[in-house]
């Protein structure tokens, strides 16, 4: 892939929860586009019609986060007294991971759960950060 070639990614909509945990929502697929000046988030779910835009000059940071599913830990612990069935569930907590692309700004957090290969999301993140830095430089110069 050449630099700047990934300008759009589609994943599952996600939300940030209290305590820093991030969780995929049931809102369906969400696309995040970058047009060089802003990020545009568009959910495609029937129940979640919205259109959110964020100027790249407002982007503070971005990250790819990989975290275990806390529901598997809870289920494993809860099922331990039941003939040790929790011992069958607990290993999944350590091996089944959620992956998220998270883009932070002062007033907004855009989160997309990654399905499949994370490389396009990593490239998109790098391109957004590069474009955000360029937009900030243009804004300061202008």
Q: Care to describe what's here?
A:
The protein has 142 residues and is of the alpha+beta class. 30% of the residues lie in helices and 39% in strands. It is built from 3 helices and 7 strands, in the order βββββααββα. It has helices spanning 70-79, 86-95, 119-141, and strands at residues 8-16, 22-34, 38-43, 52-55, 59-68, 97-105, 109-113. Strands 4-3-2-1-7-6-5 form a 7-stranded antiparallel sheet. Helix 1 packs antiparallel against helix 2. The radius of gyration is 18 Å and the shape is elongated. The mean pLDDT is 85.
List keywords for this structure.
30% helix, 142 residues, alpha+beta, 3 helices, 7 strands, elongated
SSE blueprint:
Elements: E1 8-16, E2 22-34, E3 38-43, E4 52-55, E5 59-68, H1 70-79, H2 86-95, E6 97-105, E7 109-113, H3 119-141
Antiparallel strand pairs: 1-2, 1-7, 2-3, 3-4, 5-6, 6-7
Short description:
By secondary structure, the chain is an alpha+beta fold. It has helices at 70-79, 86-95, 119-141; strands at 8-16, 22-34, 38-43, 52-55, 59-68, 97-105, 109-113.
